[in-house]
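Appendix B. Raw example, untouched.
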Amino acid sequence: MSGDVTRQWLIDWHAGDPEALARLLERNLAWIRRRVEKRMGPLLEAKGSATDYVQDAMVEILRYGPRFVLSDEAQFRALMAKIIENVLRGRHDWFTAGRRAAAKERPIESESLIELDPASATGTTPSQALDRSDSVEMLRLAIGLLEEDDREVVVLRQWDGLPFEEVGFRLGISADAARMRFQRALVEVAAKVSLLRRGELGALLA
């Protein structure tokens, strides 16, 4: 039953129902906060109120992050916790900044809704993973699940459009090392997109 409720609230929220967001927060925030606190520890405490930071991050992700629906409440919580950890560890709010900018240019209803329900997902290969109408949203979700070093190099190169010399400077490595890290990270992104399309969230969140 809880899975059906979570799925319906996500659908309602993406359809424009503000009450659905409040229900998602009320039901899931405490669990997600405990999970994030357990994994981040002092790093989160140093930021101030854990509840405030986790709640703000969750609201930002649901408002401006990739729009997704799934059927399993446990996987929804694990997915949100993982992305929130990455957002709070990141150097800037890259995950939601792109969505906020896009929201100014086109109505939210026109954007893709990613189906992550394993029962509805379809198989794909990495080469096919980037050739669909929801590719940008799916890519952003996959990048949100990358390890910090991989995520940073992809964001600096792909999102910010920086040359490898500048990417390497910001990461404290050479341009060649930045280029190699970026190529490896792209392989990880393609693999994660493929798993997302097949609904294999367990493999991503284990």
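End of appendix B.
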